Amino acid sequence: MTSSAVTEQLGAGLRKHEDLTLLHEVSIATAGVSHLEMCIQCGSCGGSCPSAADMDHTPRMIFAMLRAGMRDDILRSNTPWVCVSCYHCVVRCPQLVHIPDVMYTLKGMAISANLFKDSNAPDFAQSFVGFVENFGRSFEFGLASRHYLKHYPLRLPGMANMGLGMLTSNRMNMLPKRIKNIEQLKLILSKAKTLELTS
Amino acid sequence: MNEYILYPGCSMEGSAKAYNDSLNMIKGILGIKLNEIDDWNCCGATEYVGLNLIPAYSLIARNLALAASQFPANSTVVAPCSACYLNLEKADYYMAERPSLGTKVNEALDAGGLHYTPGSVQIRHLLDVIINDVGLDAIKNKVKKPLSGLRVAPYLGCMVPRPDYQRRWSDFEQPTELDDVLKALGADVIEFPLKTSCCGGHMTQIGPETAYELIRRLVSTALEHKAHIMVTVCPMCQMNLDAYQSEANRYFGTNYHMPIVFFTQLMALAFGKNPSESGFGMELTSAKDALAHISSEVLPNTPNVQNKSEGLPMPSARLRKKPGK
Q1: What percentage of chain B reaches a pLDDT higher than 90?
Q2: What value of ipTM does the predicted structure carry?
């Protein structure tokens, strides 16, 4: 678009010149071929979503906002965190957009930008990953106790029975298991942390 | 004897111990040999991918690389856990679909002396292997105690039939594989419309009210269809519906009691194992009363004669059954 046409549009009330930088940035940073650019705003995703009622924006709205370059609003939205990874939207999307994978990308961006104000969900992911990076295995007991103490102290009395049940039925290990070659895993992960998808 | 590479996943040693124990009971009976990947690591569940992409995929791919190098003669990795199954499958698929992802992941793996070429292994879920490689007839032949009288709701959850990159399942939303296995065990399988609806996933941890509603929908629908028990293939589904059912009850002021167990537990039971050998008793929402609905006794040890197929097409047993049962 020529700059005079842009000026004319902005003068006529358009608040922002269409800038696809954000859309491309998210698309490129998403695993696989995201097909994000192909969204036709049909709304099949939000209509299929079991947790849409609890989202600040439906997935369809998020994709329109990406196109509109509304970075901060998107990264403040709870939508990516409320996504339950059920893939109903994916199999119904006529444009084959990798919707949950786009949500994962947005979570990572929201943490880096530090715009999502509820620390609960990012904390859970970070604690989970912390155990995995140090032991090579997830550690349910450590994760649950840490998470509930920090974020749901009031739920603890109710959860005590369940925790006890998990322990007495031998379903929760009190100590984490460590893989043998944790050093190898750490080397792989620290190398991986220096890499990102840029093309 | 069918031989496979096994990726058990963390929950098999913890919250899904009943799945592990019952699988160990039935694998010999079904003629399945499972060789565990030595020194496998966590798949990252749904958490790591949301933090950092290349580390998340490298974490998954380490398992694929180990599987391919430890078992050059075998190429099928079996995962009993739905989230592990999807993560392994997804890493393999996306590393091929997006070569730059494959390159970066291998750059990271190289730091640990490993390499993975996408497509080197096939990733399959345990249920897929049981129904397609072992087969329904073989399963029927092993049944010693048909589960007649037990009304079961087949509940697959999300991550097995979706997104199904390799088109292994009969349908994205209403697949019939689990129904067929349970019918082969003689159980009375209900038409469960929510068989692939979400259990809440990680929302039980980070947004419990969202999860409670999803749990309530599943449990109440199973009850409306007069199920005695729900049967799943996924440790996350089992954990959410079993362990958080009382929390959901407290939240809604309801009084549901809908036990949920793994399909392998019912297989073990139908193959003549007793409930404690089959992993029963570990569930927090007890399945004891549900099991009392099984009306059959263990059949005497007679050679199993296959039923002749009926001459004319007949409505299925479920349709012929008198109402009110």
Answers
A1: 87
A2: 0.90
The verdict on A181 touching B (C-beta cutoff 8 Å) is: yes
Q: Which range marks the domain in which residue A167 is found?
A: 120-192
Report the distance separating Cα B198 and Cα B137, nearest Å: 31
Residue B310 pLDDT > 60, yes or no?
Answer: no
Q: Strand order of the sheet with strand B32-36?
A: B32-36, B2-6, B76-79, B122-125
Element (H, E) at A131: helix A120-135
Note whether B108 contacts A: Cβ–Cβ < 8 A: yes
Say which residue, B299 or A48, is predicted with more confidence. Answer: A48
Tell me whether residue A197 is in a domain.
Answer: no
- Rounded to whole angstroms, the Cα distance separating A67 from A77 reads 16
**pLDDT for residue A8:** 76
| CA pair distance A164, A171, nearest whole angstrom | 10
Pick from B273, B286, B194, B186: nearest CA to B232:
B194
Domains present along chain B, CATH in parentheses: 2-126 (1.20.1050.140), 145-318 (3.40.50.11810)
**The pLDDT value given to residue B320:** 46
Q: The tokens 């299925």 sit on which residue?
A: B316
Instruction: Kindly determine whether residue B13 and residue A173, on different chains, have CB atoms separated by under 8 Å.
Output: yes
Looking at A113, A129, A164, which one is the last position of a domain? A113
Burial B295-306 (b: 16+ CB within 10 A, else e): eeeeeeeeeeee
Mean pLDDT on B58-77 = 97
Between the alpha carbon of residue B37 and those of residues A179, A186, B98, B239, the distances in Å are 12, 19, 26, 25
Buried b (16+ CB within 10 A) or exposed e, A145-158: ebbbeebeeeeeee
The answer to whether the Cβ–Cβ distance between A107 and B51 falls below 8 Å is yes
Q: Bigger pLDDT: B189 or B317?
A: B189
Nearest-Cα residue of chain A relative to residue B115: A188
